[in-house]
Amino acid sequence: MVISDELLAELAFAKTKLQKAKDEVLKIEEQILSLQETKDKGSTTITGGNGLKLTITTGYSYKLESGFPREMPTRMKTELDAPKYEKIRESDPELYNKLSEYVTATKKKPSLTLKVA
Hints:
- This protein is α+β, with helices and mostly antiparallel strands.
- Helix content is about 40%, strand content about 25%.
- A three-stranded antiparallel beta sheet has the order 1-2-5, with no helix packed on it. It has a two-stranded antiparallel sheet with strand order 3-4.
- The longest helix has about 30 residues, at about 5-35.
């Protein structure tokens, strides 16, 4: 089967439209985020009068730095248990401060979800 030049041109045109739509969505999301206060971590929901509901979710991702103290050498992937790390921050600030020397916290890109209310 031979793919026609016309079909390839349609694909190229559709991909261009898709990229333009993605760029427009990012631009609108940036405008919304510049106007709406959000929490450092968690969700903020806005319900419009037009029946649309927008939820903005924010948070952090954590990465362990090299040199993190380990008792036993292992060959498994080491990753931070973020929920437990967050609980330590609330329950034991002193331990949290010691551990945070080995953790890099990076703010996640806010996630925007739009639904019909």
